[in-house]
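We were asked to recover a plausible sequence for a given structure. The inputs and outputs are reproduced exactly as logged, with field labels preserved.

PROBLEM: sequence recovery
POSITIONS: 88
GIVEN STRUCTURE:
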């Protein structure tokens, strides 16, 4: 095995390691986005039931609550999903 072979192997191993790390990070981001989406959908259902709204209006109410509180929709939705109520 030559020095070039060793350098190539080390470079390839380093590249594969970084690719695997990047893919793991992407998977974690997708999992987080999926969890947030589920919380938003759950919050929409809770607001629909409490306020008698359709899904679009319930989402608008959640968005307005977040805007008013200076909080992202995902945070408001998580709170609604946890507490079962929307607080303005």
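RECOVERED SEQUENCE:
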């Amino acid at each position: 095995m030559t020095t070039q072979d060793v350098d190539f192997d080390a470079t390839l191993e380093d590249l594969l390691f970084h690719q695997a790390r990047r893919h793991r990070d992407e998977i974690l981001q997708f999992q987080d986005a999926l969890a947030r989406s589920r919380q938003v959908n759950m919050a929409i259902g809770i607001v629909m039931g409490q306020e008698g709204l359709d899904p679009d209006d319930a989402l608008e109410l959640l968005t307005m609550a977040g805007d008013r509180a200076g909080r992202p929709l995902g945070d408001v939705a998580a709170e609604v999903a946890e507490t079962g109520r929307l607080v303005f």
